[in-house]
Amino acid sequence: RAGGGELAAAMALRLLVVEDRESLRRMLVRALGGEGYAVAAAGDLTEARTHLASAEPIDLVLTDLMLPDGSGLDVLALARERTPPPPVLVLTGFGSVAAAVAAMKLGAADFLEKPVDIDRLFALVAGLVEEPAAPPIFAPPGAPPIVGSHPLLRAAIRALERVAPTESTVLLTGESGTGKELFARALHALSPRREGPFVAVNCAAIPETLVEAELFGHEKGAFTGADRRRAGRFELASRGTLLLDEVGELPLGVQAKVLRVLDDGRFERVGGSTTLTADVRLVAATNRKLGEMVAAGEFRPDLLYRLEIFPIELPALRERASDIAAIARHLAGELSARLKLAPFELAPDALALLAAEPWPGNVRQLANVLERAAILAPGERLSA
Question: Residue 334's CB: how many other CB atoms inside 10 A?
Answer without folding.
Answer: 14
